[in-house]
Specification:
The structure is a single chain. This protein is an alpha/beta fold and 236 residues long. The protein has a single domain, classed as Rossmann fold (3-Layer(aba) Sandwich). It is 34% helix and 27% strand. The longest helix has 16 residues.
Length: 236
């Protein structure tokens, strides 16, 4: 299995406040990987550095074998990296259909690319609200739209930051079901979330971050066998 994303020795700061201290992890082609840890431990900053939104001070980020840590966010996105950000950040003054079509691209060369119809099959609730404006959607519908928008770019790597944060339980289940379907289709995914038991069944590989440092890495079987580890670093 080839490495799609390789992060090595990543150090990132906001002004004089350093957040990441030598962070290293990889995401292999076709796998689902996670970044785990309590709030404020550096997971979102890691994602922002990978996507070019917050430039790293040192370290390397390789995507598709190319160093990207000095590239602009739009250049990295065009290479096939799609982010579903914390807070969703959909366009409130565009309809559901316009939000989706605005991002349509073919970045991974798939013979069966994501289209508007495909996204609406994945998220039937969006089909019912196709002409609604972004600000007329519930939080769960906005999250579905944010994921659908990312899929419309046909990315090599899909990153979801707090994919189920603040969602009602039934909507959360819809999101987990979606992610399982994407995994079955071979989509490479990096997930940040707090529901460890769901992530154990979804993901192949996990990285736990504490105060900007990697404190544990392993597969789902190893994580499932060590609940005290969850208590120590994730607070479950």
């Amino acid at each position: 299995m080839s490495v799609l994303l390789e992060v090595e020795g990543l150090e990132t700061a906001y002004g004089t406040s350093q957040v990441l201290f030598g962070l290293s992890f990889t995401v292999a082609q076709g796998e689902v990987a996670t970044l785990l840890g309590r709030n404020g431990m550096g997971k979102t900053t890691a994602v922002r550095s990978v996507t070019g939104l917050t430039p790293a001070r040192s370290g390397t980020v390789r995507f598709l074998g190319e160093r990207v840590e000095s590239l602009a966010p739009d250049r990295i996105a065009r290479m096939g990296l799609a982010l579903v950000p914390e807070g969703r950040q959909i366009f409130p003054n565009l309809t559901v259909k316009e939000n989706l079509l605005a991002f349509a691209a073919q970045r991974n060369g798939s013979k069966t690319p994501w289209t508007l119809d495909g996204v609406l099959v994945m998220f039937p609730r969006l089909a019912e609200r196709l002409r609604h404006m972004g600000n007329q959607l519930s939080g769960g519908e906005q999250q579905m739209l944010a994921i659908g928008r990312a899929l419309m770019t046909n990315p090599h790597l899909l990153i979801l930051d707090e994919a189920t944060e603040g969602l009602a339980p039934l909507v959360r289940e819809d999101i987990w079901h979606c992610l399982n379907k994407l995994r079955a289709q071979g989509q490479t995914i990096l997930v940040i979330d707090k529901y460890v038991q769901r992530l154990i069944t979804l993901a192949n590989h996990h990285t736990i971050v504490e105060r900007g440092r990697v404190v544990w890495q392993g597969d789902s079987a190893q994580l499932a066998a060590d609940p005290p580890l969850w208590q120590r670093y994730i607070g479950v």
